[in-house]
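> Could you send the Pyridoxamine 5'-phosphate oxidase family protein prediction when you get a chance?

Sure thing. Input:
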Amino acid sequence: MFDTLDEIRTDCANRLIRAARDRKSPMHTPVIVTADVDARVMVLRAFDPVHWTLRLHTDSRAPKAQAIAADPRMAAVFYDKGAKIQIRVRGTGRIEAQGPVADAAWAASSNFARRCYLGEGPGAGSDGPTSGLPPEFEGVEPDDAQLLPARENFAVLLIDIAEVDWLYLAHTGHVRAQFCRAGDGWQERWVAP
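Output:
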């Protein structure tokens, strides 16, 4: 399937680009892990193939924001069952609630998506099942004025990838490769699965 490490690194980048752009991509919703060993599924919003940075959206009040501020080590797992390819990455995360990256991500979001940041915040207690949204926004798309308070809760999670572990599952024998950032380039190697 892949004969060179350069082909694999290019394939990883292409898969992550597609995962961010195509909500039907099997890698669109990776498992994101913070250093406090908490894992959750999140939506990949963008991948920068030049800097190898992932962008995801989050609530600035979420417990993961405090966990990342305390220890920025992070990991993510992407899996494409049809292609039988797993991509694991490690790196450092940072939360940006203000500034051009957060502002651009907010501006590119739909009002329906922005309404998620109107509630009490992730982990808030409830007497019963809840979406966390104020009742007037259940199933309703708010207008721009109604969303003004939501902007202060919106943030982006940026993960700068330092290591990539690629695994191809094959009945003839699995194949695995690893990549580690080294300055502006990569150290790369084949490894046993």
